Amino acid sequence: MKIAVLGSGGREHALTWKLEQSNLVTKVYTIPGNGGTRNNVNIDLRDFEKIKQFCLKEKIDLIFVGPEDPLVNGIVDFFSDTGIKVFGPDKTGALLEGSKIFAKRFMRQYGVATADFWEFGNISFDEGLLNYKSEDLSKFANTPKKYQKVIDKLQGNCVIKYNGLAAGKGVYVCNCREEAQKAIIDIQYKYGTEASYLIEEKLLGDELSILAFTDGIDYQLLQPSQDHKQLLENDKGPNTGGMGAFCPVPFFTPKLKSAIVQDIIKPTLQGIQQERMNYRGVLYFGLMITESGPKLLEYNVRLGDPETEVVLPALKNDFAQLVLSCFDGSLPELKMQFHQETYIDVVLVSGGYPYEYKKGYQIFGLDNIADDVILFHAGTKKENQKIFTAGGRVLNVVAQAESLNEAIQKAYERVNKFHFKKMFYRKDIGKRRK
Ligand code: AMP
Ligand code: GLY
Asked: What would the DSSP string read from start to end of 15-69?
């Protein structure tokens, strides 16, 4: 089987690495790929027609879509008459990530445990989607009074979210009324005064990422993982795409798992069926484990990054078989198997990220990589057999060990072997909770 992986991050390097280990796979292309992936094909991910021509010419059997954008833009629908399997939801399913308001209405309609919310701005979806009709707030859009009432009710302890895709930059976690007010002004400044957004009650607890493979009816879970979204130690500083991750997570008990299945995963799959989404892909549940149980913060319709860089090494199963089982009805019978070790990923980033940073610095230490570390490239570029920085998140250093503590120690010993100008990383990945 020939596969094309779409994307260029650490997630996509991990995907190609795992797919290449399968006996079912003869060749993996990456579109456009990075300095660590092989068989790169330089096509813009917005150019579906060109991707289609390439895939038909090369007789690609399966496309694994890494990032959310092509899914939200309807790549699954676009390929529906080609006979090529595209792993991911259709355009309607992708709204679970593409529109935060759609996702919250979906959660409310199907009884998925989540934070209370209020919506603002003009929102319209295709007719037929979701029976749930929210209170019509559009007439209040952008009138200070209405949102002020909600902010006051929550005493400023709220989370404000821009409705559309914003690469993690459209979410504002606020601690007081002033911060909330500023967040709304910022959204309107960036996305226009008509921009739609949500105000949510702020939840407290530990975050957890649960990734499921689904055929739209059944599902199989990967190991529970934890991301580290903030730039600086002790979860300080601006939000990033993710500075590191580890799996499995020690506080994931059987009791917690069963609450997540009952209160979040099962109602989500019921909703997917009732809304007639064509969903063969990954469902990512971004959870907050609160005192009153697990609550869903967000859906993603693809694998997480950097979670993928730990959950794929931890998976024993043939990965291509797992993906194919979402198409041929064999998913429920599949037995999921995992390595016993703990896996941790420390992300090395360009100094200045997530704001402005320079690219083009040579990366050293790539020649003699220790056998016990896996290196996944993200923002890198290969030129004349040398590797240079080409993005914010540059490298993922992944280590494994019997215990979380040993894995942490090993990862940080290996991190010091790599170097590029202005390299930066967090020193406390995995240390949040023991
Ligand atoms: P999202 O993109 O919706 O996952 O939000 C990004 C981050 O904002 C999450 O990983 C949380 O750290 C935080 N966040 C989002 N929603 C809430 C909420 N209702 N309560 C507390 N924190 C939240
Ligand atoms: N690691 C969070 C995400 O991929 O959205």
From this structure: HHHHHTT-TT-SEEEEEE--TT-SSB----TT-HHHHHHHHHHTT--EEEE-SSH
- Amino acid in position 283: L
CB-CB contact of 312 with 319 (8 Å): yes
Give the closest residue (by CA) to ligand 1 atom 9: 297
In a domain, 164, yes or no: yes
Considering the chain, what percentage of its residues have pLDDT values greater than 90?
81
Domain finish residue from 201, 234, 268 = 201
Residue 417 has pLDDT above 80, yes or no: yes
Confidence band, pLDDT 50/70/90 cuts, at residue 140: very low
Residues 152 and 186 in one domain: yes
- The strand pairing partners of 40, in sequence order, are 30
Distance between CA 336 and CA 327 in Å, rounded? 17
Q: Answer for the pair 29, 51: CB distance below 8 angstroms, yes or no.
A: no
From 5, 170, 18, select the one nearest 88 (Cα to Cα).
5
Q: pLDDT tens digits for 310-345?
A: 999 999 999 999 999 999 999 999 999 999 999 999
Pocket test for ligand 1, best of 119, 288, 299, 301 (most atoms within 8 A of CB): 288
In a domain, 340, yes or no: no
Strands 62-65 and 85-89: parallel
- Pair (86, 120) in one structural domain: no
d(CA 402, CA 374): 16
The count of structural domains within the chain is 2
The token pair at 189 is 């400044």
368-381: average pLDDT: 92
Q: Is residue 197 part of a domain?
A: yes
Which residue reads 């909330």 in tokens?
180
Task: Tell which atom from ligand 1 comes closest to the C-alpha of 170.
Answer: 2
Q: Domain range holding 43?
A: 2-90
CATH number, residue 193: 3.30.1490.20
13 ligand 1 Cβ < 6 A? no
DSSP secondary-structure letter at 352? T
Rounded CA separation 152/169 (Å): 24
Atom of ligand 1 at shortest distance to CA of 161?
3
Atom of ligand 2 nearest to the CA of 306: 1
Q: What is the mean pLDDT of residues 211-220?
A: 98
Q: Which ligand lies nearest to the CA atom of residue 297 in the structure?
A: 1
